[in-house]
């Protein structure tokens, strides 16, 4: 007996079921593609974020914009303008602050990443402001010499102790402006005094004239030769006994430039340490040695 074929309704029902299944499978694949595409985009965003925080940050141009430079209100206005102008060129933020010790510059950092030691990469974190480990005091040569020659409670030793007390545990930088020029003038004064003494001897030791008397400055202060050994000993004490970095500049514009140089260097320190934590980075500021 011949088996009866499917009715038209049954065939239509099967056709609809197949069409629905095919449509459902098509939708499932579409959803999977969309999900996969979203995951790829998300993965690329993560990779991009990681790449951004893992740029070669030992490059000061990359790391410097993280810094905030706090400039003391006591600083000379012209020098302040010079420093701010140079920092603006580096896209470095700067603010003013009322330091209890005159002319102290300090630094903060906008921290946006944290080093993962296991993976060896920097990972993004919510931004926070963090104090840096260095402070810098700008000192004029005349001020430095006065401290060297002052009484015990107001001398250079007292100044360094105040710095250490005000900024415990931080690395100190003394940026001294004009000391090379001061020492040259001081040496010239000694040479003039010596030449004058020789002339007097050649003239038969006549009574001292006004020419070989200690010269007076325009402000009527007596100008006398200062033993350079005292200045050298004071510089050595700062570096060796107190572990500070001492750097010399010759003019305000050079002082401003070196504030930016130190800013750039400090910005790279954590990245260089992460790159090679076990090795000495070899820069004078980290070891406390004279440049």
Can you walk through the features of this model?
This protein has 291 residues and is of the alpha/beta class. It has a single domain (54-186, 210-287), classed as Rossmann fold (3-Layer(aba) Sandwich), CATH 3.40.50. Helices cover 51% and strands 19% of the residues. It has helices at 8-53, 60-63, 77-89, 141-149, 156-166, 179-202, 228-241, 252-275, 284-287; strands at 67-72, 93-97, 104-116, 121-140, 171-177, 245-249. Strands 2-1-3-4-5-6 form a 6-stranded mixed beta sheet, with helices on both faces. Helix 3 (77-89) packs across helix 8 (252-275). The radius of gyration is 35 Å and the shape is rod-shaped. The model is unreliable at 207-222 and 278-284 (pLDDT under 50).
What's this model, at a glance?
With 291 residues, the protein is α/β, with parallel strands linked by helices.
Strand tally is 6
Could you tell me the CATH topology label: Rossmann fold
Beta-strand content estimate: 15-25%
Q: How many helical elements?
A: 9
Count of distinct structural domains: 1
Average pLDDT taken over every residue = 84
- Envelope shape: rod-shaped
Sheet with the most strands, sense and barrel status: 6 strands, mixed
Distance between the termini: 110 Å
Low-pLDDT regions: 207-222, 278-284
> Under the CATH scheme, which architecture would be assigned?
3-Layer(aba) Sandwich
**Estimated helix fraction:** 40-55%
Widest sheet: strand order? 2-1-3-4-5-6
Give the H and E element order.
HHEHEEEHHEHHEHH
CATH C-level category: Alpha Beta
- Which class best fits the helix and strand makeup? alpha/beta
What is the radius of gyration computed over CA atoms, rounded to a whole number of angstroms? Answer: 35 Å
């Amino acid at each position: 007996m011949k088996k009866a074929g499917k009715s038209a309704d049954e065939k239509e029902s099967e056709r609809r079921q197949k069409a629905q299944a095919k449509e459902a499978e098509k939708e499932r694949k579409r959803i999977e593609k969309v999900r996969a595409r979203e995951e790829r985009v998300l993965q690329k965003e993560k990779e991009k974020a990681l790449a951004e925080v893992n740029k070669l940050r030992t490059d000061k141009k990359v790391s410097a914009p993280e810094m905030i430079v706090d400039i003391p209100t006591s600083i000379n206005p012209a020098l302040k303008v010079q420093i701010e102008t140079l920092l603006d060129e580096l896209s470095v933020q700067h603010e003013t602050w009322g330091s209890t010790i005159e002319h102290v510059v300090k630094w903060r950092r906008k921290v946006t990443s944290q080093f993962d030691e296991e993976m060896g990469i920097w990972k993004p974190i919510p931004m926070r402001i963090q104090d840096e480990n260095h402070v810098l005091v700008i000192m004029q040569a005349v001020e430095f010499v006065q401290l060297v020659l002052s009484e015990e409670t107001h001398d250079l030793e007292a100044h360094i102790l105040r710095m250490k007390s005000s900024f415990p545990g931080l690395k100190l930088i003394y940026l001294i402006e004009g000391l090379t020029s001061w020492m040259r003038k001081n040496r010239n004064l000694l040479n003039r005094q010596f030449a004058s003494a020789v002339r007097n001897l050649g003239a038969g030791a006549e009574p001292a004239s006004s020419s070989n008397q200690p010269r007076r400055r325009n402000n009527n202060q007596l100008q006398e030769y200062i033993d350079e050994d005292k200045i050298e000993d004071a510089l050595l004490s700062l570096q060796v006994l107190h572990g500070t970095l001492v750097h010399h500049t010759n003019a305000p514009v050079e002082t401003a430039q070196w504030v930016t140089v130190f800013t750039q260097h400090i910005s790279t320190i954590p990245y260089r340490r992460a790159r090679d934590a076990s090795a000495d980075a070899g820069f004078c500021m980290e070891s406390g040695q004279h440049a």
